[in-house]
Structure formats: structure tokens, C-alpha cells
Amino acid sequence: SAEEKTLRLGVNFAYFSIDENFDYTIFLPALAMVFLIFLSAYLIIHTVFELSVAEDVRLIGLLKTLGMTKKQTRQLLYFQGLMVDLPATVVGEVGGFAISAMILNRLFEQNAMLANVRPDFAFFAGVGIVSAVVTVCTVYLSIFRPARLAEKVPPIHGAQYTDTVVGNYKNRRSFSLGRLAVREVFHRKGRFTSVVMSMALASIILTSVLTYTTNMDIKKGLSDTITTDYNVASPAYFRYEYLGKDAALDPEYCRKIEELPGFVGGGGIYGAGYGSAYPEVKIKGETVFSVLFGMDPYLVKKQSFLEGRFDKKSWNEGDGVILGIEQGGGRSFSVGEKIHVTVKGEERELTVMGKIPYNFSNGLRYFMEVGKEKDLPVSETNPARDRVYLYISPKSYKAWMMDSSLMSYGFDIEKQSKKDFDDALDKMEKKADFSYDSRAKQEKSFEDTKHLIELAGYSLAFVLFLISVLNFINIIATEVLKSRRDLAILEAVGMTRKKLKVYLAAKTAIYSVCSFFAASFFMACVGNSLLKRAMKQAMWLDVQSTWWPLFLVHGVNALIGVVFVLAYYESKSKKTLVDRVRDL
């Protein structure tokens, strides 16, 4: 039977690609985002522990003089990481479950396909265990290199360690604060890279989220789901279970709607569902799998034509056909081309009038696949035939298919009548064979989806931004502490405190500027291409780049860094110059 040879799959066209030639690279943006998150965590933890080793290197050297082995030195850092990781994991698990529960609840509430899905305790427990294991592994991986550096510190060298690098100034005729700041920033290339990348990642993720959400076009999104003010059908249709006559809409509902004050116009789509006999369609001698629909002229005019135009005369005469094209399909057809359609043993010749997108607003809301050999199911040895969706006039459809099943009915109203129609449709919906959707409902669903993406993206970007700022402040504070001797000596030989502040601010600004260029380079070369690939999969998005978040994040970073470094230097230089030099 047709049921045994057909696979039905309910997919929301507004959120997913419907190209049957599935391209695995659509997952690249998601994989890139996951990679960025792990890279951010690695860089931040690695930088913190590398600075910790640099700051405590004298203590490590002294401990080695007392007999501490390389293995014990490495274990000491891992133990420090474990002590930091345990409370952080607990806090992260609690906060993560709270945020994810809020996001999942909103996702399930607004998606009919997931309305009855509720993760159980085992699911959350599994996620918690996996996330904890991943966190511990990330921490230990991040500590690996700093631990190796610590275990290689010789005892005597550790006791005499200084992070200052003496440059070769023999051929330099002048000295400037800018050159000194550049030298101090770039002389530790590994630290410089980790700092810059950790600062850049937050802006990259925030820019990606804002690029995605600010380009969401509600008009395009709704055109895939509903083209009229209201759409009525049986509940089975909205549950992706329209199988045919048993789920057809009673035309009496349409008559009652048309009698309500404020009704402007409407039309129906007729379809027999997956259980009908599939019409045979031949294109250039090759048979393809097709689904036939009847569509009233009112709805035809509401469609977005990809090619061609609507010819009412040809439509009413039954000579024209409109093709519903899945994303990326329909290349074998041309407007004006003659195709041969065999319905119940009778062959007819139709002229292709135009092409329209096949989506939620005019389709079955699920996919159908039939093998090239009709008596065999779809398999590796019996691949599915190409799909094509045909729209003809309701009169021709009823005559050819000998079926008058009304799949759905869409209509428009006057704006001031919205409340009256909502009340009337709510009353009708109390009956088991009637349900409805509206533009207002879809707009709210679209906005909820947008807010959901923004909530998840902004939360992630904010956390990474906060961590990057704290990491940046930690680095600046550590460098100020370790440079106290240099700063005191520079001040002793005549450099004013004002110039020293300029020097510290310049170092901070160099980090921010380099981070900005690194983030911009990534977005220009890699990020935008991945984003555009993801955005092209959804027909409800415009592909336009957004750059202002990069300026915002790095501007704030630079401002916070400069303000902090100056305040921190003031707090650490309250003693007299003589006392500071004596302490060192």
C-alpha cells in the first residue's frame, strides 16, 4: 500500500532547510560556535595559570631548593586547578541548568512538534555529568603547558626570576614610551596571543548573534508559514498529520466565516494527502514523483513567484500549472515548458505558468518519498524519485482526482474586525474537527523565536565578555605588580608619574587594538562566510554583515582596561619612591 511505501517527516519550514540534497556543511556555523566556546575557555584558564606560574616562580624555585621534584611541581598546579574547578563546576551546573530550563521551556511552548516533550531527570543528570567531565578535561588541558613551564624552572633561576626582558638598545638613538610599551607587550608572544584571542572571542560570538538576529525578516518568515490573516484546517493538518479525506476541513466552516462582517476574501487548497494515487509526471521522458494540489485564485495571487506570473484565464481553463519548488530544487523546469501529467490513467499536457516556494503555507507540512520502483520501499538500492509539487485550478483538481478534500482555507479580514474573528474562531475551535492559525499568532511565535536566540546568544556573549574583561584586568594587574621595580627605577631616573600612566595606558590600548584587528580578521575571512551559509539555509533571513558590536566590545574593553590600570597603579604607588625602591 501507499502507506507502507511512504515515509512522513514533520519539519518546520521556517527554521530548517528543505533541500533534499542535504549539505553537511550547514552544521559548520554550529561547530564553529562550539569550537570558539572551548577555545575561549582554554585560553582564559591557560592565561590565568601561566600568569600564576610567572608570579609564583620564585616560590616554586625556593620549594625546589627544599627538595620538591618536577612531578610534585606539576601535581601542585593540577591540585590548584582542581580546587578552583570544583566550586566553579558546581556554580556553573546550577546556573546552566537554570538558564537552560528557561530556554527549553520557551522552546517547547512555542513549537507544536515539541509541545509534549519534557526532558526527565535522567536527561538532566546525563547532561550534568557530561558537562562536568568536559569542564574538568578542559581545565586540565589548559593547565598542561603552564605545569610544564613550572616543572622546568631551575631552583636558583626561580629564586632570581624576573619577567623583565632586556632589549638591545645599542643602535637606537632615541627612547619613547610607545616603543617601550610595544616591546613589553610583544616580548611574550604566547601570553600576547592568548590575551588577544580571549578578548576577541567574546566580540566574535556577540557579533555573530547580533548579525543573525538583526537580519531576521519577519515578513519573509511569515511568508513561509502563512500568507493570509488566518488559515483554518483540521487539527490533524496543524499536527503534520493530514492524511487525506478523514482529515479534510468541512466546507461549512468556510461558509460561516465568509458570512462574518469584515470578511475580505479567501480561498482553499485541495489535497488528498499521502494516501492518494500519485500522479505520474514526465519531464523530458523521465518520470518524477509528484503531489497534486488544487488552489483557489485568491491564494495563488498571494504566493511569491520565483519565476513566471499568474494567468487567470489559463488557470480557469485548466491548461496551466504552477510548480511548488523546494529550496534548491526545480532546476529541471522552465516557465512555458510543456509537462505530461498522468492522473488515474489519463494523460494531460500542462504548461508551466510559474514557480513558487513550496512551504508551510501551501503544502502538506511533511515530506513524502517514494522509491523509483513503486512496489519497493525507499532504500539504498532503490533511491527516492525527484519530487515536484503541482498546483492546478480547484475545478480541474476535483475532476481529475475525483476528490474534493479541502486541506486548508486561508482568508483576509478588515483590521477592525480582528477581535470579532478571534472570538468566532475560538468558539469554532472547541469542536474536534476545527483549528486555526493566524498572522498574529505567527508574529508572536516569530518574535518569541528571535528573543529565544537573543537570550541564549546574549547570555553566552555576556559571560564570555565578563570573563575576558576579568582576565584582562587580571593580566594588567599582574603586569603592574611584576613591573613595580621597572616603574620605580624609571621614576627614580626622572620619568614623571604622568608619563608612566601614559606608558601603562598604551600597553592596555595595544592589547585592545590587536584584539579588535584579530576579531575583525576572523569575521571578515571566516565568520561571515559561515554566517552567510547558515543564514542562506533559512529563507527568513537577509544576508547582511553587522560590524558595530566589534567596535562596542573592544571600545568598552579598552575603556575598562585604561581606567583600571591607572587606578591600580595609583593604589600600588602610594608609598614614597624611596620606600618602593627599598622594597624591591
Structural key phrases:
single chain, 584 residues, alpha+beta, two-stranded antiparallel ribbon, 55% helix, elongated
Question: Can you offer a commentary on this structure?
Answer:
Strands 4-5-11-7-9-8 form a 6-stranded mixed β-barrel. A two-stranded antiparallel ribbon has the order 1-10. The chain has helices at residues 28-55, 57-65, 70-110, 121-151, 155-159, 177-186, 189-214, 218-223, 235-238, 251-258, 297-300, 312-317, 394-401, 418-428, 439-482, 484-492, 497-537, 548-572, 577-583; strands spanning 9-10, 230-233, 263-270, 280-283, 286-295, 307-308, 320-325, 338-343, 346-357, 366-367, 387-392, 406-413, 435-438. With 584 residues, the protein is α+β, with helices and mostly antiparallel strands.
Overview in brief:
By secondary structure, this protein is an alpha+beta fold. The protein has 19 helices and 13 strands.
* Mean pLDDT level: 75
Tally of extended strands? 13
Estimate the global geometry from the Cα principal axes. elongated
Query: What's the N-to-C terminus distance?
Result: 90 Å
Q: Strand-residue fraction?
A: 5-15%
Rg, Å, rounded:
33 Å
Structural class per helix/strand content?
A: alpha+beta
Biggest beta-sheet profile:
6 strands, mixed, barrel
DSSP helix fraction: 55-70%
Number of DSSP helical runs: 19
List unreliable stretches of 5+ residues. Answer: 1-25, 164-170
Query: Strands of the largest sheet, in order across it?
Result: 4-5-11-7-9-8
